[in-house]
Amino acid sequence: MSLSEEFISRLPKVELHLHLEGSLRPETFRELSRGRNSMVSKIERWVLDRQKQGYRYATFGDFIEAFKFAVQLLETPEDYALATVRLMEWLAEQNVKYAEITLAAGVVLWKQQSLDRIYEAVRAASLEAGARLGLRVNWIFDAIRHFGAEHTREVLHWASRYRSEGVVALGVGGDEVRGPANLFGAVFCEARDCGLHTVAHAGETCGPESVRDAVELLKAERIGHGLTAARDPEVMALLRERGIPLEGCPGSNVSIGLIPAFGDYPLRTFLDAGVTITLNSDDPALFGTSIGQELSMAAAEFLLSADQIAGLCENAARAAFLPEDEKQQLLAQIRQAVLA
Ligand SMILES: [Zn+2]
What we know:
The chain is of the alpha/beta class. Helix content is 54%, strand content 14%. It has a single domain, classed as Metal-dependent hydrolases (TIM Barrel, Alpha-Beta Barrel), CATH 3.20.20.140. Helix 1 packs antiparallel against helix 15 (291-302), helix 5 (77-93) packs parallel to helix 7 (115-133) and helix 16 runs antiparallel to helix 17 (324-339). Bound molecules: zinc ion (ZN).
């Protein structure tokens, strides 16, 4: 193990862009199949396919199909609770101290499942696991942007109901082309009026104008991905001036073919422009990655120092939707690891 890998493994971490449904690893899939033979063989074939293809997807649509496969195994509140516990155990192994996990609340509603029963199960599981593992999580309820404003407003209704019980933000994900930002300005405004934070996936499959719209029309406080912002110095300046952090997910971007290789991620461009960048795993099980791996790859590809790697984690701690004193505690833990 190289010095930086040893350092990265013990570094306290903060993860801000992480989908519960994309975190189901093969062993969790097997647990969720409940031994149903037809499901077990489907899962084994699916897992083998992912591995054979090196966790790469020919198109964004292919990735969405894989995401849907994971979602269909989550049938009951107990399934969601199990997925939460297994994810948190995995995060604890990587020394993640705080995570904001995105629940695809829009998908739960679309499947006509009981969002209140599911969230209450997930929340109880996360409190129990968090106390046991020394890890805290909060939740982001994500709407499907191509389902439109009314769908997003329904997700907001549920997010605001659970605001004092661990839901910190409303987010939108999905197809940026079919769900442009101008549809959601009013809903995002309502979310802020409810005391929720707001985040938006943008600049992943669309150009920098999508990031500009997420900032100017939605007033999103953080941008999921924001990859294509690197192409436009004016959008970079906007992010810097408004202090809006990007939730970077290079491994995810490589997996769905948005960049050819990890080394093509514009990390240096973001750092040099003074844009606040964080690294995250997005859908770690679907992309064969983890936050530890994202940091290790970044250290290796971009020759980052221990201080720079810690700086990425500090950016995430500062960008977290937490009270200031809790951010300071995380920052102190990260600093301590650098000095140790
Ligand atoms: Zn995402």
